[in-house]
Amino acid sequence: MQSKKIMVIFGTRPEATKMCTVVNALNKYPERFDVKVVVTGQHKEQLYQVLQNFNLKPDIDLGIMKENQSLSYVTSSAISGLDSVIQEDKPDFILVHGDTTTSFCGALVGFYHKIPVGHIEAGLRSYEKYSPWPEEVNRRLVDVVADILFAPTALSCENLIKEGYKKEQIYITGQTAIDAAMATYKEEYLFNEPELNKIDFENSRVITMTAHRRENYGEPMRQMFTAIRRIADNNPDVLIVYPVHLSPTVREMAYSTLSGHERILLLEPIDFVDMLNLQARSHFIMSDSGGLQEECVVFHKPLVLMRDTTERPEAIEAGAVYLAGTDESVIYDVSMKLLTDSNFYNQMATARNPFGDGKASERIAHILSQYFGFVDELPEEFL
Ligand code: UD1
């Protein structure tokens, strides 16, 4: 049988971290799949860092990013760029991931060309239209358009069933983020960012933090950062490490409220391998990110989640993540509890990993092999 043309479309750093393992899994079967990686370039520097880590180069880069880009700009330029690429290449199948504007555009253009679409990380829901914004709605729109829904967990599968999707089009695969995290952690590790090699992880308690969400721009982010500064002020053995996202809005707030403190280390974005190895060596994590909620459980590190809702309630139910919102006093209090109450800390740190077993990417390659008739059997689901 002739190999099938699979177009893998992504555009931002988190999509790349969760898609590269899938690309590599598909590439193990060159007789089945002819894989083309198309990036919209919604992100530039942050995306290429990840691709390098996985030794991948995009076949096509639409290079759409510009400073302070609006959502409408990203959407319109990704749609017109992807339309030409898909028109020319005529893939047999399109794979998109998650909830970004790039994912939404890739799925929609695939649908316009009547090409089947697979949605990796389908079925996550906060059921709040504006939180995360615009990701909650992007994700639902991709699910509507997709033909195959790769749900990471039983809960995301249940969400889809409740919304009327048929079980025949849903496969529970586990999270590809877990595959990437497991493959990337190293016991002996020299960081690429020299500042990280200067940290005394034995004698200080490192809190790794990130913050970038659009719905937190402005007052919520100011409250988050004020709490963080107070934590640094009041704990002489704590070092807060914050690789600052390249968004100009985030950078302005981060540097104006957090710079100049001897126990807060502001860094340029660090690469994916550094980030995972930093998490593994941290005392705990503070973040508004989606992906870190999955990675922290691999390393048994508690996470204080600085947003109002999450589409990943599994980690909260398991006890690994604490949903703190963006109120300064709540963030401060729960972080202080983690620093002072060892029972509370240990309870969070020993929570089970509800997200995956490291085999999600391989399952996805297997499911696509079955879909195209290269094999008869489906893999066991992640349960
Ligand atoms: C996007 C995703 C979000 C994801 C996040 C990860 C959407 C709607 N949002 O949000 O789901 O969690 O990526 O980072 O798709 N920038 C650079 N260089 C880079 C990357 C970003 O300069 O390599 C700057 C640009 O000025 C850009 C700004 O960051 O205007 C914001 O990027 P954008 O992709 O619009 O939104 P994110 O907040 O990154």
UniProtKB/TrEMBL annotation:
Coiled coil: none annotated. The keyword Isomerase applies. It is an enzyme of class 5 (isomerase). CDD domains: GTB_UDP-GlcNAc_2-Epimerase. SUPFAM superfamilies: UDP-Glycosyltransferase/glycogen phosphorylase. The keyword Plastid does not apply. GO terms for molecular function: UDP-N-acetylglucosamine 2-epimerase activity. Gene3D superfamilies: Glycogen Phosphorylase B. Transmembrane segments: none annotated. Keywords: Isomerase. It comes from the Bacteria. Pfam families: Epimerase_2. InterPro entries: UDP_GlcNAc_Epimerase_2_dom, WecB-like. Its EC number is 5.1.3.14. Residues 31-368 form the UDP-N-acetylglucosamine 2-epimerase domain. Belongs to the UDP-N-acetylglucosamine 2-epimerase family. NCBIfam families: wecB. This is UDP-N-acetylglucosamine 2-epimerase (non-hydrolyzing).
